[in-house]
Design brief:
Two copies of one chain form a homodimer. Chain A has 401 residues and is an alpha+beta fold. Chain A is built from eleven helices and 20 strands.
């Protein structure tokens, strides 16, 4: 029916220029509707369906027995109720806390996106609808686009001789960057397995968080560089010459530590093309999950590069002793060298339900045994974006001060 | 099921780092599948459904009687066939020409996105899946990310005193911009009614088209500026402090011609923050539909600003004499002034089925009657993005030469 839409749009445009209004308001279905008390109502039009459900992280999680992984906590599910017009609806029984939430419908067993909501996020290979609950003074208020000065977000291509290709990355420059001659510190922010250079912007709300923290004076103005951590990829799915297909994933290049080893290519590009303070005291690196792993190994491989290191729900140990890549050899020796150079902040954060929790306990024991100073930050819940947004919001204000 | 996905991802990450591979390949449903002969197969898993259909611009259009607008051409529709596993499928009866195509499924009457395809585009308030058929040497080959140098794409916020707000826009800088001290010409490219500063990038494939035309030596390296043409908006839906809701649309500001009148705010920002050749000979303006209307009126309101003007399926006349906004007054007088200053190219393109065709005939008669030189380019079909990608591909190579 798209052509009809386009044609109707054109006709409307010429009649009244109210096309946008009409198209955005044409559906009688408002979903999701954030009510005044912060309960949320979902609606789905499906007169012939037998059962419409909604699932998402706004519902209390359920425990599920899974083959191979034992009990895991999965998103809750709720049934919608059908009215006489074929409109199904569900309202949360209680108000929701301020947060960015994700949800999908399930229509007679089939996952379906919300046709009334154009706002979606791709997380690896799954697209999910989203909604935001604001709350003045809440941490989630930082995830909103607020009425504050906004930085710029660029997608640029840099040359990586180390990986033998041009690669795409996302760069946030703080408000005022374009209007000053100042130099800025740089925060390298790395995604997890399955992610790419879009993940921290879309799911992590990085631009909004940085805008807000800087506007409140909580964080220093800084450049934030979001790379692609998959060393076999030029860039995010759909953004390279591979076309609109599943991305190329050569695990062997990852296993050889090529991302970590080639990291100076990223830093060199940024220092050459942006007004940076190009020294250790003005560089931070942090990442989530696989990106935490990358931050750990890159920062000890290049111990003069970063004064600030953040491990968010980090993978720690899988490579140690498992293959011959030099980057992963001599774990404790490299760590010793790094800490002898006194990094200003080594920050470890994890959720108490994270499946990587015990690995982080073991890693902290190494740090404790060696009296390497670090700061530890623990939250409830597990390996989820909600936590990574929290960690970014906590970590960024500690940088470059 | 998202949390399960995330947790499974984490487990996989730690076990094998093959999470991405696994997640991208986990579905047995491959849809759409571009076959070797450029036929395309669609698949949808729905064991309980009674009828699954696919609709999109890759199918022959149908004529539909609509209330108020008479007969309109709408996207075709095809039924899928169910196999014993509950997988529905449809293969196009003949190969498709190289092009960017849009489609959706209809499951028992309900529009549904393709769960096997993460690639989607938002067109105004509708999200649709997309796929690309490549063809070496075809025009559509320019819509692909090819193995050529890539420009950068930035979202920046500029101050518009004329509109009394900070506003978001998209800016393409050509390959090499960051590594040179050269100054570049600027092409201002405007969207249609209902669109925003994302439309030309997502639906128009502007970054890909410019990368490819520049790499082939067909177009000069240039900066392309894509503004938001809705004078009541700070930026695209979801990107402003209005949150994740339908956008604010104050038609009265549009009717007063505030977008056109405030256009120097855009030009001033760009000339101040980018290395531009800041004169008429190195500025172009073009737009589709409402953006063609904006290009027409802005270029005659500021006759010393642009040497290149492109009207793509442009709306022409709706405001003339209908309200008191000075920008729309004295249509022919302003046009006379503009053409006395000899713009280097005045380019008009439209499809022979476009509902604005007759308005463009009337407008060209005015130009003809006054012997104002222009170039006319006519294509088949109507008011559709396929044509606007063609027009961009034809227009950009004529600029700044």
């Amino acid at each position: 029916m798209r052509k009809l839409t386009v044609i109707a749009l054109g006709v409307l445009a010429i009649n009244s220029l109210s096309a946008q209004q009409a198209l955005w308001d044409s559906s009688k279905i408002k979903s999701p509707q954030v009510n005044e008390d912060n309960t949320v109502t979902f609606q789905f039009y499906a007169p012939q369906a037998d059962l419409v459900q909604v699932t998402g992280d706004f519902l209390p999680p359920r425990e599920l027995e899974t083959p191979g992984h034992g009990k895991v906590s999965v998103a809750g599910i709720a049934d919608l109720t059908k009215d006489e017009n074929g409109v199904w609806s569900f309202t949360t029984p209680s108000p929701l806390d301020p947060e960015l939430y994700m949800y999908s419908f399930i229509v007679d067993g089939l996952r379906s996106l919300d046709p009334a909501n154009v706002y979606m996020i791709r997380d690896v290979a799954t697209v999910t609808n989203i909604f935001l609950i604001d709350g003045e003074g809440s941490r989630a208020h930082n995830y909103m686009v607020n009425d504050v000065p906004h930085g710029s977000v660029s997608r640029v291509w840099y040359d990586s001789p180390g990986l033998g290709m041009k690669r795409r990355m996302s760069i946030y420059t703080p408000p005022g960057y374009e209007d000053s001659n100042e130099s800025y510190p740089v925060f390298y922010l790395l995604h997890g397995a399955g992610g790419d250079e879009e993940a921290w912007l879309a799911l992590g709300r990085t631009a909004q968080i940085m805008d807000n923290l800087i506007a409140e004076g909580k964080a220093e103005p800084m450049i934030v560089v979001m790379t692609n951590g998959n060393p076999s990829q030029e860039g995010a799915p759909g953004e390279t010459s591979e076309g609109l297909f599943p991305p190329n994933m050569d695990i062997s290049r990852m296993n050889r530590g090529e991302f970590e080893t080639s990291f100076p290519d990223v830093v060199n590009y940024v220092d050459k093309h942006y007004r940076t303070k190009a020294d250790k005291a003005h560089r931070a690196i942090a990442g989530l999950s696989m990106g935490g792993f990358h931050s750990l190994h890159t920062s000890k491989l290049y111990p003069d590069m970063f004064d600030y290191v953040g491990l968010f729900s980090a993978a720690i140990f899988p490579f140690e002793g498992r293959n011959g890549a030099p980057v992963y050899q001599d774990f404790e020796g490299k760590l010793k060298t790094q800490f002898e150079k006194n990094p200003k902040l080594y920050w470890i954060a994890i959720g108490d339900e994270d499946f990587l929790y015990q690995d982080n306990v073991k890693f902290r024991k190494i740090l404790d045994d060696n009296k390497y100073p670090y700061v530890y930050y623990e939250t409830p819940e597990g390996h989820i974006w909600k936590n990574w947004r929290i960690y970014l919001t906590e970590f960024a204000p500690q940088l470059f001060k």
